[in-house]
Amino acid sequence: MAEYEVIADQETAAAAASRLAAGHGPVAVDVERASGFRYSQRAYLIQVYRRGSEVYLFDPPAIGDLSALQAAIGDEEWVLHAASQDLPSLREAGLEPPRIFDTELAARLLGHERVGLGAVVEQTLGITLAKAHSAADWSTRPLPQGWLEYAALDVLHLIDVRDALAAELDEHEKTGFAQEEFEAVRTRAPKPAREEPWRRLSGLHTVRGRRALAVARALWTAREEYAREEDVSPGRLVPDRSLVAAVIADPATKQDLARVKEFTGRASRNQLDRWWAAIEAGRADPALPSERGPGDGMPPPRAWADRNPAADARLKAAKPVVEARAEELHMPTENLLTPDLLRRVAWNPPAEITAESVGEALLNLGARTWQIEQTAQVIAAAFVDSVQSPDEPSEPAS
Q: What single string gives the DSSP state of each residue in 153-169?
């Protein structure tokens, strides 16, 4: 196995970028973060490979300015696996691809049963990759050689995988599907911040009362601020279950809080003043949260039969035909059309149901052209059928 070195200065990074620029064809790119260890999702290692060159491992925090790398590969197709996970970290590091090939997404569109990188490499190339360090703390310095070998292998075979999947996409006439999906991933805007992110606290459903929810919100906010200051994953400071236990215990004093046995974690005791201040702030906050979080105006499908029987009938009619179309195309239903898009168009359909009007509604909701071409007709027909009486013959949607 080759020995790998981490590039940690601008001069060496510029030299590596020059060698990558002299290579040929697409560029394989991967990112290692420290999820679960650090607060940020920044890249702590960026691996790059191109034919005619070699694998280079860049240390973004140490290098700082990666403009030489962007200039070297910024006009080429970048090959990534699960690109939606890596693109935000790459952009934070100043790296932006002009176009991408996502090997995970390609495998999904082709109906591969397993789409993890190791599985896709094995399926396409017959090479087995060890995935021993995928959950490691990549902010560790120095990085062990075994980790570097693992990181290098993540890109070393990626171009060959891309070529195999591209040929398979062509064979199954799915190249156009894939190109639309790749571009949608590349250009997708970041998700807006959650309106009330504290409601994602695991176990919050056991907290009763608006005042107790205000305390939970204050504790979550205090932990978030401290985690950001320390650049540590919030759950490593104080686990969710510990925050919820502190809320439910409703301690009368700071000492009572210290005696809550479930209130454990790296910072539970040495930051006791911080947590007690948050509890007091939550108890005094005049802006009490509602018992239930903000919704999008659409109830869960299990409530549709009572709340909106017509929408329930539309969804029940359309769901199986979309699933059948996905099966015909040999791909997961959620890649053909996400359940959320189908629910939204079923809940709020066009005034006149036709394939064109359903397609326009799907387009406005964010569906891609190929998805609309494959589903609008069958959805429209299903919607029409859902309002026909059993004795009334149905007419195909135009």
A: HHHHTHHHHHHHHHHHH
The conformation of residue 207, written as its DSSP 8-state character, comes to -
Whether the per-residue pLDDT at 393 is higher than 90: the answer is: no
392 pLDDT exceeds 60?
Answer: no
Q: Is 323 exposed, middle or buried (0-12, 13-18, 19+ CB in 10 A)?
A: middle
Place of tokens 């790998």: 4
Supply 234's token pair.
């919030």
CB atoms within 10 A of CB 188: 12
Residues of the chain with CATH 3.30.420.10: 6-187
Domain with CATH 1.10.150.80 in the chain: 197-284, 301-386
CATH node for 301-386: 1.10.150.80
Looking only at the bridges linking them, the beta strands covering 45-51 and 56-58 are: antiparallel
Q: Which residue in 29, 24, 59 sits closest to 158, CA to CA?
A: 29
User: Which of 343, 294, 83, 94 has its CA nearest to residue 192?
Assistant: 294
Task: For residue range 348-365, list pLDDT tens digits in order.
Answer: 999 999 999 999 999 999
Measured distance CA(275)–CA(247) in Å, rounded: 11
Give the bridge partners for 100, in sequence order: 78
Q: Which three-class secondary structure state does DSSP give residue 237? A: helix
Q: Which amino acid is at 48?
A: V
d(CA 360, CA 319): 19
pLDDT, tens only, 52-98: 999 999 999 999 999 999 999 999 999 999 999 999 999 999 999 99
What 103-107 contacts at long range (C-beta under 8 Å, 24+ apart), as own/partner pairs, is 103/79, 103/158, 103/161, 103/162, 103/165, 105/178, 105/181, 105/182, 105/185, 105/335, 106/162, 106/165, 106/166, 106/168, 106/169, 106/178, 107/165
Give the tokens for residue 241: 């279950």
Could you give the CA distance from residue 41 to residue 68 in angstroms, rounded to a whole number? 22
Task: State which CATH number among 3.40.50.10540, 3.20.20.150, 3.30.420.10, 3.30.420.240 fits the domain covering 6-187.
Answer: 3.30.420.10
User: How far is C-alpha 44 from the chain's CA centre?
Assistant: 18
The Cα 183–Cα 160 span in angstroms is: 21
pLDDT (0 to 100) of residue 1: 59
CATH (residue range 197-284)? 1.10.150.80
Residues 6+ apart with CB under 8 A from 208: none
